[in-house]
Amino acid sequence: MKEEALKVIESVLSQGRTAMVEYEAKQVLKAYGLPVPEEKLAKTLDEALKYAEEIGYPVALKLMSPQILHKSDAKVVMLNIKSPEELKQKWEEIHENARKYRPDAEILGVLVAPMLRPGREIIIGVTEDPQFGHAIMFGLGGIFVEVLKDVTFRIIPITERDARKMITEIKGYPILAGARGEEPADIDAIVDLLLKVSQLVDELRDYIKEMDLNPVFVYEKGKGAVIVDARIILKEPEEKKPEVSSEYKERCA
């Protein structure tokens, strides 16, 4: 797990970058068994057409560039592409939009991804506190995080008990539990996500600065979850692991 993730991380750092594109971030997540779609990075139109046939239409296209991390702003995400003819058109459009948005952008390729069935949206994030180290954040996605700020935090590493408590203590928990007769969401899948993110960051804490998994689709109980988009920011090579206070160490002992 760690070795596979480190290969991706070291490749990014060797290019003088700390911001991973979505494809690279998902390769790190995949190394730790986190649920990511079966996506492929196409360098040419012919590869994109081939991958779309393998994945099966409809597909989505997402341009990967270290200089264009906010893909929606640049209009380099094309959804629900239903045929090879449409894919050819969107391939040209996505590259034209990238050139308009950032003429000097380095294009690593275009991610060809399956169109995913929507689920209840959650967000999982990681930040680093100068005193206590890395913290994991959980909340519902969309308006709940953008407007209501309905999120909860724990210091990494977390236990299964921590993960379950995080899920139940947000105000929006009834939406996951099955409000108004809806089927409950797969809470066990969310717990698994939180624990795996905690393990990943705990083992790679000397490299990971920030992480944002948003959105994550969570399906009905027993149906799992899938990470739709991911962002990882690495530490600068000269950055050192922050010192944790002796008081906090004693409390954790």
From TrEMBL:
<dbReference type="InterPro" id="IPR013815">
    <property type="entry name" value="ATP_grasp_subdomain_1"/>
</dbReference>
<dbReference type="InterPro" id="IPR011761">
    <property type="entry name" value="ATP-grasp"/>
</dbReference>
<dbReference type="GO" id="GO:0043758">
    <property type="term" value="F:acetate-CoA ligase (ADP-forming) activity"/>
</dbReference>
<dbReference type="GO" id="GO:0046872">
    <property type="term" value="F:metal ion binding"/>
</dbReference>
<keyword id="KW-0547">Nucleotide-binding</keyword>
<comment type="similarity">
    <text>Belongs to the acetate CoA ligase beta subunit family.</text>
</comment>
<comment type="subunit">
    <text>Heterotetramer of two alpha and two beta subunits.</text>
</comment>
<protein>
    <recommendedName>
        <fullName>acetate--CoA ligase (ADP-forming)</fullName>
        <ecNumber>6.2.1.13</ecNumber>
    </recommendedName>
</protein>
<keyword id="KW-0067">ATP-binding</keyword>
<dbReference type="Pfam" id="PF13549">
    <property type="entry name" value="ATP-grasp_5"/>
</dbReference>
<dbReference type="InterPro" id="IPR051538">
    <property type="entry name" value="Acyl-CoA_Synth/Transferase"/>
</dbReference>
<dbReference type="GO" id="GO:0005524">
    <property type="term" value="F:ATP binding"/>
</dbReference>
<keyword id="KW-0436">Ligase</keyword>
<feature type="domain" description="ATP-grasp">
    <location>
        <begin position="26"/>
        <end position="62"/>
    </location>
</feature>
